[in-house]
Backbone:
């Protein structure tokens, strides 16, 4: 199962991807996590990405694609994956499709988690207190939400045109939301449950 998880910052994508990973037995690949690891490790790529991330803007398509290609080439991704945070704009969407077509492994489904914006702001404030992410400040969150609406929403439209988009209500208990996601997956999806 090759799955793309879409949803605004704070919609719970990362948490749900971790739960799904256990259910489906496929890796959770978060470009945000890959970038944060590069920033922590102080790699040249991390140094380039740091200021862009702290401003709530998108790191260059080229950097993120290179990182993603490397990650997808690892053995555990052969059986499928849950992509979280990628594609973030239509150019990334096209790059992903070209890459996966070359591997003969197209995306099966895109799940969009829908959460009202008041709740998003509340959730991110909670996460900021818990995790201390540098990009969870109120100004940066506003910018990330703006970038999401402007650049990432069209990606959902693209998957809808392909008939691959499923919209899932992201409000509720974690287990409840993950059951909704599992229920929205195409029939025959492998499950470790
Ligand atoms: P996330 O953890 O997905 O919210 O990502 C945190 C930050 O990492 C974003 O605000 C961007 O600055 C950067 N980032 C993550 N994924 C991407 C991507 N696919 N393209 C560009 N920038 C990204």
Residues:
């Amino acid at each position: 199962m090759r799955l793309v998880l879409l949803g605004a910052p704070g919609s719970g994508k990362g948490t749900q991807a971790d739960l799904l990973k256990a259910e489906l037995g496929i890796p959770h690949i978060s470009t945000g996590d890959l970038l944060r690891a590069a920033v922590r490790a102080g790699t040249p790529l991390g140094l380039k990405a740091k200021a862009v991330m702290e401003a709530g803007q998108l790191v260059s398509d080229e950097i993120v694609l290179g990182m993603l290609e490397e990650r997808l080439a690892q053995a555990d991704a052969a059986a499928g994956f849950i992509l979280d945070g990628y594609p973030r704009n239509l150019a990334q969407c096209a790059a992903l499709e070209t890459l996966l077509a070359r591997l003969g492994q197209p995306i099966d489904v895109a799940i969009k988690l829908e959460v009202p914006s008041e709740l998003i702001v509340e959730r991110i404030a909670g996460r900021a207190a818990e995790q201390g992410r540098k990009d969870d400040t109120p100004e940066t969150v506003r910018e990330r939400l703006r970038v999401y609406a402007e650049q990432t929403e069209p990606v959902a439209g693209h998957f809808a045109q392909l008939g691959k988009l499923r919209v899932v209500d992201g409000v509720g208990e974690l287990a409840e939301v993950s059951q909704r996601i599992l229920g929205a997956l195409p029939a025959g999806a492998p499950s470790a449950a």
Remarks:
- Residues 9, 31-32, 35, 52-53, 56-59, 64, 85-86, 88, 92, 135, 144 surround adenosine monophosphate (CB under 6 Å).
- The longest strand covers residues 109-114.
